[in-house]
Structures are given as structure tokens and as C-alpha cells.
Design a protein that fits this description.
Layout: E1 2-4, H1 7-19, E2 24-29, H2 35-47, E3 50-55, H3 75-84, E4 89-91, H4 95-99, H5 118-121, H6 125-140, E5 144-148, H7 152-164, E6 170-174, H8 194-199, H9 202-215, H10 220-233, E7 237-244, E8 258-266, E9 269-277
Parallel strand pairs: 1-4, 2-3, 2-5, 3-4, 5-6
Antiparallel strand pairs: 7-8, 8-9
Helix pairs in contact: 6-7, 9-10
């Protein structure tokens, strides 16, 4: 496995694969990897001849009060994990390598589907994601790019601008990886105290209960209100509990497939999760 830190170095490493028309798979990450990230690499390995993983903590997707400076940077550990699951090339650029020394005057903004959910709580976040992911797509030029469904809104945003901008690759969503107790794996789980870690699985448990209630014909608004109350009762400060269509449009009646979304803080740690619920008539 190679590690490249420059755009030119990565291009040189990928040139033989391109010359031989190899299928290139790409997994963008911010490092501090867990099994969820490694699952993306495993999926890429199944479909692709060459797998590239980027490790880059992107400053422009963090808000002024967010944890950019404290975000865990664990490159050596990440490299070992990636070698073990079949990554071929790690791309670990500096901020200067990605953004240069001159001011950036170009932005990418996706409307409508970024207006609420995490977009409401984190203004500018998805613009920052769109810029860095577009840059990475241009640098790597993969055939396939792999993203986790835990960040469902992010996945929808990426699919949207890939479609809108005619970026020639296929985006593949990979199911959420969970701990044994159901907590969605996230780099931010490392911030949880022992007490809060014990409470955190209530999010997924509540989502599962909500799914059962929907299939039992309980009204969607009632289900969402109970879900919010359950989380509040165990100590979460809820950012949102929402239902959307798979395309992120608002929905008020369970008469088609629906995605249930939760974002909530326990202590200082903000957790997100979602559950896709299939609609079956009758």
C-alpha cells in the first residue's frame, strides 16, 4: 500500500491503472477510521481493481464553534487499518495541497435538500462538503465512490451534485455499521463518557420502535413525538426528529417508503442516526 501526500504523486501512482483501464474505487474520509469506514473499503474492494482512500480533515465544512482543531488525527493507525482491508493507495494531502495559497473564490451550493436537518444546524457545512468532494473526485477520477448511509443527507447531497454537474462516476451508498448494542459507528463516539456511551444506543432502539409503530398503523406525527420524548427523557437534547422520503422531501403520512432521522446531543457529543422504513400497503 502506498501513501501519497501530493496531487502529482497520486496521479503518478494512478497512471498505470488508468493506462490499463482498471476500475478505480474511491473512499473519501476524514481519518480516525472505524469499522464503518473499513466496510466502505471492503465494498470498494469487491467492485474495483484499485482502491484509493483519502484522509483529509476538511476545514471548510466545520462551523466556527465546531471541533476542527480537536478532530482526531490518527494517520499511522489509519494506515495500518487500511492496509489490513486491502486499500491500495492512501491520499493524505495537507490543507495547502488541497486549497493552495490563494483565496478560494469558487463555491458549490446545493439548494432545497440542504435547507433543514443537519443543514439548518450547520449552515455552510454541505457547501464545504460539496467543494472538497468535487475537488477529490477531480483529483482521483474514480469510477465508483463509496459513502456510508449514516450521513444520509450528505449522501443525498453528493448524489445530487454528481447528477447536476455530470461528474462521470457512480456513487454507492453502504449500509450503516453498528456496534453490538446498535449505536451507529462514528468517530465522534470516542468523545462519549462511559455514562453517555451507555445511553447512546437508545437512539437506535427508539428508531426500531418507531418502525414497529408505523407498521402497526400509528400516525406518523404521533410516532415522531414519542420518539423525541423518549430521547429527551433519557437525557438527550434533541436537535431534530424528522421523517422524509428517500429523496429528502417532507412527508406527513406513512403511505410510501420513509426515512426517520435523529440528531441529538448527549453531553457535548452530537450523534446522528437514521432508519429506512419500507412501506407495504395493507
Amino acid at each position: 500500500m502506498k501513501t501519497e501526500t501530493t496531487i502529482q504523486g497520486l496521479a503518478a501512482s494512478l497512471n498505470p491503472a488508468r493506462a490499463n483501464r482498471k476500475i478505480i474505487g474511491f473512499v473519501p474520509t476524514m481519518g480516525n477510521l472505524h469499522q464503518g469506514h473499513l466496510n466502505l473499503v471492503r465494498e470498494a474492494r469487491k467492485l474495483c481493481d484499485v482502491v484509493v482512500v483519502s484522509i483529509f480533515v476538511n476545514p471548510i465544512q466545520f462551523g466556527p464553534n465546531e471541533d476542527f482543531d480537536n478532530y482526531p488525527r490518527t494517520l499511522e493507525q489509519d494506515q495500518q487499518l487500511l492496509a489490513d482491508v486491502g486499500c491500495d493507495i492512501v491520499f493524505a494531502p495537507t490543507v495547502e495541497q488541497m486549497y493552495g495559497k490563494k483565496p478560494r473564490l469558487t463555491n458549490i451550493s446545493i439548494s432545497d435538500i440542504t435547507d433543514d436537518l443537519c443543514g439548518l444546524q450547520r449552515p455552510g457545512h454541505f457547501d464545504g462538503v460539496a467543494v472538497v468532494v468535487t475537488k477529490l473526485f477531480n483529483i482521483v477520477q474514480p469510477n465508483y465512490a463509496f459513502f456510508g448511509q449514516k450521513d444520509y443527507q450528505q449522501l443525498a447531497v453528493i448524489r445530487q451534485f454528481v447528477q447536476d454537474l455530470n461528474i462521470p462516476l457512480e456513487v454507492i451508498g453502504v449500509p450503516i455499521a453498528r456496534a453490538e448494542d446498535g449505536l451507529a459507528l462514528s468517530s465522534r463516539n470516542g468523545y462519549l463518557s462511559q455514562e453517555h456511551r451507555a445511553i447512546a444506543p437508545v437512539i437506535y432502539q427508539s428508531l426500531q420502535k418507531a418502525e414497529q409503530q408505523l407498521h402497526a398503523a400509528i400516525e406518523l406525527d404521533t410516532v415522531l413525538a414519542e420518539l423525541r420524548q423518549t430521547l429527551t427523557d433519557v437525557g438527550f437534547v434533541v436537535d431534530y426528529v424528522e421523517a422524509r422520503t428517500p429523496e429528502l422531501q417532507k412527508i406527513h403520512t406513512f403511505n410510501q417508503d420513509v426515512v426517520l432521522f435523529v440528531a441529538a446531543k448527549i453531553g457535548n457529543t452530537r450523534l446522528i442516526d437514521n432508519l429506512q422504513v419500507k412501506y407495504t400497503a395493507g
